[in-house]
Design goal:
170 residues
């Protein structure tokens, strides 16, 4: 063989192609089989499931399904990037020279940005803590809040019985 190996050609029948498109779009194997092969309404569901599974066991069909799914994901990703660029370009322009009449356009761009996942706040905490460490931190926070509440009670003249209720919660 040469330095460049070619991938085997995927020669599928029209029905196998249709089956692959149906599976790639989210249909079950049985539903895709019924769609592609025009099954008799009286045929058994189990037979359709088995036939769909046999089709998916074929390397060419499974490869076609995977290729269709990857193509769809690439198109979706490209669409998200395009939307992201559009939103950022518009928001930058409006931030420079916005007028009150631009409010609906800015809101529309904001909503488009949210659908593209641009405004998601992600906070990530590095490292792991044991349950004992977390419990100790929670106990300390409760103690700090109780101390703050007790000092507020003494400032307002609240009776010590109210302070005892706070201690019981701890």
């Amino acid at each position: 063989m040469t330095g460049k190996e070619r991938a085997p050609k995927m020669i599928l029948t029209a029905k196998q192609q249709h089956f692959a498109r149906c599976v790639a779009s989210g249909d079950s194997y049985a539903a895709a089989y019924r769609e592609a092969y025009d099954c008799d309404p009286d045929s058994q569901q189990k037979t359709q499931q088995q036939a769909g599974s046999r089709l998916m066991a074929k390397v060419e069909v499974a490869a076609r399904v995977n290729m269709l799914i990857k193509q769809r994901e690439a198109k979706l990703q490209a669409s998200k990037l395009s939307d992201r660029d559009f939103v950022l370009r518009k928001l930058r322009g409006w931030s420079d020279d916005a007028i009150p009449e631009d409010a609906p356009r800015i809101r529309a761009a904001e909503l488009l940005g949210k659908t593209a996942g641009m405004f998601i706040n992600v906070s990530e905490r590095r490292g792991s803590r044991s349950a004992v460490e977390i419990q100790a931190e929670l106990d300390q926070r409760i103690a700090d809040m109780s101390a703050g509440a007790e000092s507020a009670n003494t400032d307002t003249g609240t009776s010590s019985e109210d302070g005892e209720i706070g201690q019981q919660l701890h």
